[in-house]
Amino acid sequence: QKVLDAVQADHARTVDDLKMLTEIEAPPFKEQKRAEAFLARLKAVGLTDARIDAEGNVVGLRKGSGGGPKLLISAHLDTVFPSGTDVKVKERDGKFYAPGISDDTRGLTVLLSWLKVLNENDVQTVGDLLFVASVGEEELGNLRGMKRLFADHLDIDGMVGLEPVPDGGVLILGTGSHRHEVTFKGPGGHSYAAFGQVPSAIHAMGRAIAKIAEVRTPASPKTTFTVGTVSGGTSVNTIAPDAKMAIDIRSDAMAPLLETEKKILATIDESVAEENRRWNVDTLSASARLIGDRPGGMTPASSAIVETAVRANTAFGQQTLLSGASTDAN
């Protein structure tokens, strides 16, 4: 009870950390300045065994008395917002607003508060606690921070990732995703002079997008897809020599994700063949490159770590909602 009271009493101070860290922009692949600031705060609240690893994660180990499991507790440094975003924290009606202040800068301040309270109250855990501020959770970061962490630390027994969720929310399902960048290539030519002689990369991509739009997925487990970005061509009067699109495929289970991925990738070959056949040539080609791979999975609701979270919620009068998302916990 003393420790819980100390956490509550530390809340006002955590707001200072929250403002400071939020106002250090940290778009994907540019997390270093925020990592350095977090490392300094980590050491200030008593974790001297802390460093920035080769991937850019801030990693600190709080040793236990021995013989217990090693628990990873993490929040991610990066935000989804690009460089140049105004990240100044603004207060309105008693609430703080800024891009990334919730996802996941608040998680970083909670890590610091927990560590401070444990140290000031001389709480000795049996197992080791590995405090981590990770990189690469958002967008094309592709969980690079977590992948490096689990490759470097083969003795981790459990993980709790901090993410913004509604009160009582406990994420036990990791929504898996695969992302592909597809590039179409052809000879190109003048829209008038070369008409009928060369295929169009953009037309082939258009055929593919139309076919992808017709792919059917199961409602349960929820499985989704989208062509998120497209680009290509050189001018309005050119038969496009190149085109590119990015595809996002997600599912709450790996089997339907892989089945949907198979259908979508098949449309690429079909569309190239159709565009070549339309002009009786074979000069157009396409290639797909995997640019995102987030494995999916689920922690059983009956497992000890989930039951612990549920009982903690219950103790504070919160009804637990077990749900899923795509996070570092994947």
What does this structure look like?
With 330 residues, this protein is α+β, with helices and mostly antiparallel strands. Helices cover 34% and strands 26% of the residues. It contains 8 helices and 16 strands. The strands form 5 sheets. A 5-stranded mixed beta sheet has the order 1-2-6-3-7. Strands 11-13-9-14 form a 4-stranded antiparallel beta sheet, with helices on one face. Strands 15-8-16 form a 3-stranded mixed beta sheet. Strand 1 and strand 2 form a beta hairpin. The radius of gyration is 24 Å and the shape is elongated. The mean pLDDT is 96.
Describe what is shown at a glance.
The protein is an alpha+beta fold. The chain is built from 8 helices and 16 strands.
Key descriptive features of the protein:
four-stranded antiparallel β-sheet, five-stranded mixed β-sheet, alpha+beta, 330 residues
Give the SSE map.
Blueprint (H helix, E strand, L loop, with lengths): L1 H8 L1 H12 L9 H13 L5 E3 L5 E5 L8 E6 L13 E3 L2 E3 L3 H20 L8 E6 L9 H9 L5 E4 L7 E6 L1 E10 L3 E2 L10 H13 L9 E10 L5 E2 L2 E10 L2 H25 L6 E10 L2 E2 L5 H12 L5 E5 L5
Parallel strand pairs: 3-6, 3-7, 8-16
Antiparallel strand pairs: 1-2, 2-6, 4-5, 8-15, 9-13, 9-14, 10-12, 11-13
Rounded to the nearest angstrom, the distance between the terminal CA atoms is 32 Å
Number of strands: 16
Query: How many strands, which pairing sense, and closed or not: the largest β-sheet?
Result: 5 strands, mixed
Q: Helical amount among residues, as a percent range?
A: 25-40%
Q: Hey, roughly how much beta strand do the residues contain?
A: 25-35%
Rg, Cα atoms, Å: 24 Å
Q: Report the uncertain regions.
A: none
Strand order of the largest sheet: 1-2-6-3-7
Total helical segments: 8
**Principal-axes shape call:** elongated
Mean pLDDT: 96
What's the SSE pattern? HHHEEEEEHEHEEEEHEEEHEEHE
- Return the structural class: alpha+beta
